[in-house]
Amino acid sequence: MSTRIIPKSLLGKWSVVLAGIGILVNVVFMILVALDNFSSGSPAPWVSAVAGIPVIAAFVTGAIAFIWSKERAFLVYLGLTLLVILFVVGEFTFPH
């Protein structure tokens, strides 16, 4: 049994797409925060709230694909770990 790079199941493919969208939205959020001076009416809190949705969805669909569909593609593993990586990096770089 070998590990593939690209998933074969539909849930595995959705996990990869949602992980890519999550990365893109988080990069846009980081650029927005770097350019914004946090004036009133700043869209940064809204983008921050939206940035987590595709990452959480990628984790859930990846976990379902991993457990039920027996998906063993590398990109699904990456989607599963993306939520954990972003959470840990965010907690240690931006403490509250």
Explain the overall architecture.
This protein is an all-alpha fold and 96 residues long. It has one domain. It has 3 helices and no strands. Helix 1 runs antiparallel to helix 2 (44-67). The longest helix has 26 residues, at 10-35. The model has no long low-confidence stretch (mean pLDDT 81).
The tally of beta strands, per DSSP, is 0
What kind of oligomer do you see? single chain
The 3D shape can be described as elongated
**Share of residues in strands:** under 5%
Average pLDDT works out at 81
Uncertain runs are: none
**Helix share of residues?**
over 70%
What is the topology?
Blueprint lengths: L9 H26 L8 H24 L6 H20 L3
Defining key terms:
single chain; 96 residues; mainly alpha; 3 helices; 0% strand
Compact summary:
The protein has 96 residues and is mainly alpha-helical. The chain has one domain. It has helices at residues 10-35, 44-67, 74-93.
